[in-house]
Amino acid sequence: MILFLEIIYYLTVITIWISTLIAMITQYGAYRYDFKNINNFILDDINNPMKDKITIIIPAHNEAKVILTTCRKIIKLNYPKNLLQIIIVNDASTDNSGELLEEFKNNNLDYDITILSTTPKTGGKGKSYALNLALKHVKYNFICIYDADAAPEKNSLRLLVNKINEDKNNYACCGRNKCRNRDRNLLTRFINLELTVSQKVVNKGNYELFGIGKIPGTNYLIKKEVLDKFGGFNTNALTEDTDLSFKMHINNMKIAYEPRSEAYQQEPEELKVFIKQRTRWAQGNLNITNTYFRSMFKKSSKQFKIAYLLQISIHYWFIMAILFSNIFFVVQLSIAILNLVAGQNIDNIFIIHNYTINTLIFSWAILYLYFILNINYALSTEKGQYNSDNFILSIVYYFTYAQLFLIISVKAIFKVVYNKIKKRENEWYKTQRY
Amino acid sequence: MLNIINFIFKIPMTERIWSIISYVVVLILAISLIVSYILFFKLQKLYDNRYQEGSKL
Description:
The complex is a heterodimer of chains A (434) and B (57). Chain A is an alpha/beta fold and 434 residues long. Chain A is built from 13 helices and eight strands. In chain A, strands 3-2-1-4-7-6-8-5 form an eight-stranded mixed beta sheet, sandwiched between helices. In chain A, helix 3 (97-107) links the parallel strand 2 and strand 3. In chain A, helix 1 packs across helix 10, helix 1 (2-37) runs parallel beside helix 11 (354-380) and helix 9 crosses helix 13. Chain B is mainly alpha-helical and 57 residues long. Chain B is built from two helices and no strands. The longest helix of chain B has 33 residues, at 15-47. The radius of gyration of chain B is 22 Å and the shape is rod-shaped. The chains are: A alpha/beta (434), B mainly alpha (57).
């Protein structure tokens, strides 16, 4: 029992130290980015003449609730309409998305709009299939992908194009996403915090320090030649964006990050829907990290190795720190209660010596304070979000929302192992809209 | 557990050495945390939410 406790103790301390180190490094990167770019944040230079022609692709499967808002936002983009081709894939929808899209097309005849429709027999096989279908109709060299729930800000596309053109080695450029329904309930508020931190601190920090960007599922620009080279999107991957990012890193293709290019996206409003969506993401990321594990030990590019390590550190270390802290806390508490019930002296209830317990408590407290700092720093860069309500949420975030990721991780690991044993294909799950 | 560390890393890890290491690490992390908070407040003065487009849907 003592050995078990000691092992848990050391694992907890070490995972907490590693997580804190990772938080520290990304925080430093984000600070450096902001200090460097503080004078470029004012959007007054975005009326430069544009000459690049862009194909916008929007995959949509039963998206009647959101698709029109998205389409309206697309045509309001601050980008010359004669340089745009818009392809909307109405993928096996059984709602009235088809009629809404036809009506939208007829009302905007001055735009080059193509609507591709599939039936439940010919389509409905996931986002990658829909995107690959659209690729056959692409006219231009730059492709911009928006999800059906995306609502880009008017300058978002222009900023992506400007950024990708800054360096000829940029093969893709991603923007950032904001929570469209953040004030709906407690869950969406927490998701908003997570989204803000991941993009305003983690992605920004990683891009500044290592020049590594990661393609999100929506609001990004990519050169057509990249997709031609890889034969389109990977239809076997649940998270086609991570798969594409890794492929690009292996081939030394740079992914730029432009956090000023912003688009709204809708987030799950129910816990059940949220867990399903995140389990799919975790499952997809687990599959991809397993698939590319061997490439880490081959003569692959340095860029890929850094991206892979970052992916692992972000997704695994922090969850491990939460897991081991929880186990240690529960075991110690159980021992304390048992000892108290047995009438032992309270001074002797901790099996591990006091000074080692202090180390653990201090380490945990530092990680927790870093965590709160990360959230509040990210919030302070968002208009109207650095307020007392969000500050309180940032304090309880670790004890509530962050714990959900343990459930999600366990579910995802179970599904990955189960599918492997049963040799089953990954099941595509479409997130519910509101 | 310390014996396991001794065996793997071939360093004579005693509880005393571990406590020194852990105090040093915690001290470094604590200092960096304080520096991060100071930088955070410094950035706040510069930031002023300047680059948000912030349209309402």
